[in-house]
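Complex record, two chains
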Amino acid sequence: MKLLFLLALLAGFAGTLAGAHYAPWLPQARLASHTSVVANGGRAEQFLIRLPADRIAATDGEAGGLRAKGAAAMLLPAQFLPEPLLVEHFKVRDSSGSVIGVAARHWTGGSSAATTWSVMIPSRGAFVLNAPGEARGALEAALRAGGYSAGKSWEGEIVLPMHKDAGVLTTGGGEFEGLSGSYTETWTIASIDEDGRVAGTIEIDTVTSRPQE
Amino acid sequence: MKYLLVAIVGLVLGVSAAGAVLYFNPLAEKAAQPPSATARVLHYSLPDQVLEFSLGEDARLFGQEPGDDSLWEETIARSAVLGLVLEDASNQPVALASRLMSTSDDTDLLLHGVLVSDYWLVTIPNEGTLFVQSTSNAWPFLKETLVPAWYLERPWNGPAEYWPTVGPGSDERGEVVGVAGALRGSEGDAVERYEITTLDPARNVVLASGELHLNLSGPQVAAQ
């Protein structure tokens, strides 16, 4: 009887500690990665953002323009309103259209304009992309060239690469740690409604590789 | 029957003893050492300096309503997106931060605690953009504050201060990389501190202040 008690006590104690150590307490749901091998080495992967559904929020500064519409507004302190600064938050999809993560895009203008993406895929980690920033109001300029007038709805197709040369993968964590690579960012706009809400797709095409030791 | 009863009592006692060990387990309460006095400090207060907060449906610690913009998809249900204004030592807004957070697969209640992956993108106008990668341990906060005061409605002995950063860099600090502007190329480490100043479940009020301590080497400009 005593032995049984001690064995049960031990089993309860050890089992609980083992569960605390080995059990996957907070597992992240993971979808299969849609990657392909590119000819000169490396791995290509496309990430999509569908507008307006995937836009979580954008800052309300003067630099936002149409991109600040159709999402929760992040109300900036007064001194930031005129700054060439735009922060946008999105959900991110894989190339098959399934939501797999979230992202922040920070744009700063001026003489050294820059665009930086932080993309987090909870089951895989995070990575940072950086490229020269687009000109202020680049989206509005492209739309005007395509016949869009402010305050009116518009339908058509505008394809806008956000930078001429490929940007770079700067750093990463988790599965993306130690990777280097390049990316392009293309906005395809299909329509604007009367409230200025943009419908379209942002495509981020990455090619990454692990540098040889 | 008697044997079964003895086995059950033994099992329950064993589980209880292990629970006590886990609750008081010092391994799950690790934190980075507070930073040196030379670190640059950007601070914020909650909820005043929150620009936006989107929360996954399985990440609602305070029982918040999910809202229309919640992160409901299964792959991001344990994630959060937080937009913040950061201030300098003179309480002037100097930066905007986007925090992408999710629970970590490395959570281990025996050795590490409840871990959260926390990725900051911090833009300081006229200086540049920083990426901060940190792992935070939420276990001390959950154990000492959230569960007893919020869920069990016990009296709260606040304010409560936490240094949640536990990695992934050396000395259990977060890692900082300058990715754009004049900060590009700089590297260093980061530690977060926060203080819960008010916690009132009856009024559904939580107030807090936080600090991001940055220790940067390389081409850093305009440090305070």
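Note: The longest strand of chain B covers residues 187-200.
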